[in-house]
Write a structure and sequence with these properties.
The complex is a heterodimer of chains A (about 300) and B (about 675). Chain A is mainly alpha-helical and about 300 residues long. Chain A is about 75% helix and about 0% strand. Chain B has 2 domains: about 10-225, 3-Layer(aba) Sandwich (Rossmann fold); about 345-675, 3-Layer(aba) Sandwich (Rossmann fold), CATH 3.40.50. The chains are: A mainly alpha (about 300), B alpha/beta (about 675). At the A-B interface, helix 9, helix 10 and helix 14 of A face helix 2, strand 6 and helix 4 of B. Chain B: It comes from Mesorhizobium ciceri biovar biserrulae (strain HAMBI 2942 / LMG 23838 / WSM1271).
């Protein structure tokens, strides 16, 4: 349902963009008749409903249409770009999830002590900085000044796994900084709640060692809400990368959409956005699934 | 620590002071508290909320909240100084010698770990693992009378009922045979019958195990049934201590005297006099107390009481912290007991309910929450609704109020006119004629409005008043619920629970209602506040001739306020009649069991009738008489096959039972005379 609404919004958004498709492709000096002919070939002179129907019915069958600019099917571009974005997202994800959770847990265990203040305040400050600011600072430090890491994410052809990883570290760092604050804060508040709970008191008063109390009784209940946050942020990791991908000249889905929007390449634009919508939906679904697996109250319901 | 060298006392608390840090200042919660509990002794600690009962428990196990600190004194558990233990020794002490069970077992058990695992981990601490630990866990569950331990072990806490959860919590607490068991309000929030079961279990376990018990409760009757000695706590100080019967039957501190007078006892009724109350409030935590902490609320207090802290007088095996301990019982009443008897003319019923049914659909099954309920209520009368959770009390109230529509067929008549099933189809007059007071005034009052706004709005909406008339009526109403002008400007959170409940009552009375539904209106309140609210309800009733539908699990409270009682079980009326007849009997076997489950202050322990098992599911009620699966007086196959009719045994008193009235009378007389 959400995806359906999204598809309509994307489509209408594409239509609202100013400019004539044929004119944009052929340039300002082309003959009006040639522009009309091109528009007709592309089908953009048809009624809106027909255009939408043609596009969406093909999309659900796996045909994303043909790019106006490249005159070739959109699908390979989108799939390629999505693959690249996923690589970047995966690196950022693998970095930020464990470290973010760890940060939140450590902060909660040291509640109101200096370590907690540092993690909470630090996390919050880097989260509010937009990624193009942190991105540029990081490029300056690690790429220009220290020269430890390449400033472009575009790795050489035939680069192996580790080389690709090496190229992806710098672009994933701004993402890491943005997400770290969110995840650490959720993990921290979940932990505080769980630590204050009656069942934790029960576990402590059973005489269990502190470590067992934390690992067995606290963590699982504390991190349930964090999972939801992580999942929604996964969507962001893949879909919200326009800035980072542009900054690091990375061929991901964000930069693909950006280019398509500039070139009025509607099939490309629409397919790209809808693909991101699908990724979001899948991520949320996975989160709900995980949540219910980890939470017996949802999994088993109540007998009464 | 070896058990062979047991210290003389299981617990010795000496001069204990505890403070909570609030807004940068240490505020005293416990003040020089001393008490001892002998080996195998059960010691009760009573007092109103905020007097520091739970803090005592948490200090003994060294689990104070982050802002709490021990500012003086010592605690010794089995001869071991708890304050001096390092982390590891403290952990061992918790594992081996002290256990705690507290309120709300649903929260005390870990929601995402199976019950079995939560039990076996205790045995693993002692080096027993695998099958041996499982066997021990099963044995422990058997011990707390759980009949099917194997399947309970496999479940998660939320799949168990409250009573079962508390049994599991008790099993966990007793798993390592502790020398000290702390029970902090273990039955608060449980149904009366479940409470009776759990208390019964604790009493039985006491005989099987050697543990000493510290029993904390606000419920004096529960403590009087469970404990050998009792201490009364007030503002973090022990004000009276002694053997339970002695303290409750012959109290020597005005606070104890006043607390006991707040309770409706021995079948007291509203027309026999008001309940006494305690004026004023408990001093806030950290209050600077000169002299006796209770002096401000005590009618016996003189100048000495206000300036000098009374010592704990030793009165031969008992203690009292009062200069006037010898005349404590002469404490003048705070509330005059006289009530003007209201001559009640036989008026036409204000409410008549006939054949009311409510069926919910639950996972494809029909759930009959209310089945075939008919009754009527006269002006100025109170109908008490009694029954366990899930018996349909609240659903019935919601049907009356039009919050949920009943099944087709039944009728609700208000002053002779049929009421529309849904609230939105009722006229304004009908809506304001029927109002409700909820259990929790916190969630019933909008916290962002002032009291003046809350009551004023009710007057505008329900009574249609404005301007001068509204102002006048507002002042009237505020005075009639005994609030003062200074309460009007504040927001609900600045008021205590009792004052908030007064606001809720004022709101309900704004439109001159004919009927007010009171759904557990005093359950969240302390006894002294409860007494004041009950007095208020009784006064308003005699003044306004309003009728109440009063729902409460506290039978003494229901008895005090009600003229008529309906006993509900699985949505059916099992018994309906005048309050006195229903309570004194002969009554339905279910009523009998409910009454016998109530812990009484006056320790005339009769043979307690235990209800086995839990209330059956309403989606699949038992055949025949719905109560037959738990009925202690079941007579035979007829109970399983035929549902008995609700038949009139005496004029106005109906009972739904196959046993004839005379036979019930004989059986129940026999039970009373039978030795316990």
């Amino acid at each position: 349902m959400t995806l359906f609404l999204l598809s309509i919004m994307v489509f209408l958004g594409g239509q609202v963009l100013p400019g004539n498709v044929g004119r944009a492709i052929l340039g300002p000096f082309a003959d009006q008749r040639a522009v009309d002919a091109l528009n007709h070939t592309l089908g953009v002179d048809r009624p809106l409903l027909a255009q939408y129907w043609g596009w969406i019915s093909n999309f659900v069958q796996g045909d994303m249409g043909t790019s106006y600019i490249f005159r070739s099917p959109v699908a390979p571009f989108v799939i390629d770009a999505l693959g690249n974005s996923m690589k970047l997202a995966a690196v950022a994800f693998v970095l930020v999830v464990p470290i973010g959770i760890l940060g939140g847990v450590v902060a909660a265990l040291n509640l109101n002590r200096p370590l907690d203040r540092i993690i909470s305040l630090g996390g919050l400050s880097v989260t509010v900085l937009p990624e193009f600011v942190t991105g540029i600072i990081l490029i300056l430090i690690f790429g220009v000044w220290l020269r430890w890491l390449p400033i472009s994410a575009a790795w050489p052809r035939d680069a192996g796994f580790f080389t690709q990883l090496y190229y992806l570290i710098l672009p994933s760092l701004p993402l890491f900084l943005v997400l770290f604050g969110y995840i650490a804060r959720m993990a921290r508040s979940g932990m505080i709640e769980a630590l204050d709970s009656d069942y934790t008191r029960t576990a402590v008063l059973k005489g269990l060692p502190w470590r067992t109390v934390i690992w067995r009784h606290v963590l699982r209940n504390a991190l349930l809400p964090t999972i939801t946050v992580i999942a929604t942020q996964t969507g962001y990791l893949i879909g919200g990368l326009v800035v980072i991908e542009t900054l690091f000249r990375y061929q991901g889905i964000g930069s693909l959409i950006f280019t398509a929007a500039r070139g009025k390449d509607f099939p490309m634009l629409e397919s790209g956005i809808l693909t991101i919508g699908i990724v979001y939906a899948v991520a949320t679904l996975v989160a709900d699934f995980l949540y219910s697996v980890l939470n017996p109250r949802i999994r088993l319901g109540s007998d009464q | 620590m070896t058990n062979s060298a047991k210290a003389e006392n299981a617990l010795e608390v000496t001069d204990l002071s505890v403070a909570y840090r609030v807004a940068g200042r240490n505020r005293a919660v416990l003040r020089n508290l001393s008490l001892t509990i002998g080996q195998g002794e059960a010691y009760g600690l009573v007092g109103e909320s905020g007097c520091g009962k739970s803090t005592v428990a948490l200090t003994v196990v060294r689990y104070l909240p982050r802002n709490g600190s021990i500012t003086g004194g010592t605690i010794s558990l089995d001869g071991q100084n708890v304050m001096k233990l390092d982390a590891e020794a403290l952990r061992r002490a918790r594992a081996e010698s002290v256990s705690m069970v507290y309120q709300d077992p649903g929260k005390a058990l870990n929601p995402s770990i199976r019950v079995g695992r939560q039990l076996t981990e205790i045995f693993e601490l002692g080096g027993i693992s695998g099958q041996a630990a499982t066997d021990r866990a099963i044995a422990m569950l058997n011990r707390v009378r759980i009949s099917d331990p194997m399947s309970v072990m496999q479940r998660y806490p939320h799949q168990l009922s409250g009573g079962m959860q508390q049994r599991v919590a008790i099993a966990m607490a007793l798993a390592n045979d502790p020398s000290m068991l702390i029970l902090d309000e273990p039955t608060t929030g449980l149904d009366a019958t479940v409470e009776a079961e759990v208390l019964n279990l604790i009493a039985q376990l006491r005989q099987e195990l050697s543990a000493s018990i510290l029993f904390i409760s606000h419920n004096l009757a529960v403590v009087s049934n469970m404990c050998d000695r009792v201490g009364v706590l007030y503002a973090g100080m022990l004000v009276e201590e002694g053997p339970t019967e002695v303290v409750f039957n012959d109290p020597r501190h005005p606070y104890t005297v006043a607390l006991l007078r707040c309770l409706p006892r021995g079948g007291q009724r509203k027309d026999q006099g008001r309940l006494d109350t305690i004026p004023g409030f408990l001093p806030g935590i950290g209050a600077d107390i000169k002299g006796c902490a209770f002096a401000d609320r005590c009618a016996l207090a003189d100048d000495r009481c206000r300036s000098e802290l009374p010592p704990l007088y030793d009165l031969g095996g008992r203690l009292s912290r009062c200069f006037h301990h010898d005349k404590a019982q002469a404490l003048p009443r705070a509330t005059p007991s006289d009530v003007a008897p209201v001559p009640r003319a036989a008026a036409a019923p204000v409410l008549r309910v006939t054949g009311l049914n409510k069926t919910y659909a639950s996972h494809g099954h029909a759930l009959r929450a209310v089945k075939d309920v008919s009754l009527d209520l006269r002006p100025g009368e109170t109908l008490g609704l009694v029954g366990e959770s899930g018996s349909g009390k609240t659903t019935f109230a919601r049907l009356l109020l039009g919050l949920v529509p009943p099944d087709a067929g039944g009728t609700i008549e208000l002053e002779g006119k049929a009421l529309a099933p849904r609230l939105e189809n009722r006229s304004d007059d009908q809506i304001k004629a029927m109002q409700i007071v909820f259990q929790n005034p916190d969630s019933a009052l909008n916290r962002s409005h002032s009291i003046r706004h809350l009551i004023g709005r009710a007057l505008k909406r329900l009574a249609g008043l404005s301007g001068k008339a509204l102002e006048a009526r507002l002042n009237d109403l505020v005075r009639s619920v005994r609030l003062t002008d200074r309460h009007l400007a504040v927001k609900p959170r600045q008021l205590s629970g009792g004052l908030k409940q007064r606001v809720a009552i004022a709101r309900a009375f704004a439109g001159d209602p004919r009927i007010v539904v009171c759904d557990e209106p005093t359950s969240a309140l302390d006894v002294s506040v409860q007494a004041a609210i009950l007095n208020l309800l009784a006064d308003l009733q005699s003044k306004e001739d309003v009728s109440y539908i009063f729902i409460s699990h506290d039978l003494a409270v229901v008895r005090y306020l009600s003229d008529k009682i309906a006993v509900l079980y699985l949505g059916r009326i099992m018994e309906l009649g005048p309050s006195e007849e229903v309570f004194s009997g002969p009554h339905h076997p279910y009523t009998e069991a409910l009454l016998s489950a109530v812990p009484k202050l006056d320790q005339t322990e009769t043979a307690r009738i235990r209800l086995d098992g839990e209330i059956p599911s309403a989606t699949n009620p038992p055949s025949g008489c719905v109560f037959h699966t738990r009925c202690p007086r079941k007579i035979g196959p007829i109970c399983e096959q035929q549902e008995p009719p609700l038949s009139e045994a005496q004029p106005g008193h109906s009972i739904r039972c196959h046993i004839p009235y005379a036979e019930l009378a004989r059986l129940q007389r026999a039970a009373v005379t039978e030795p316990a």
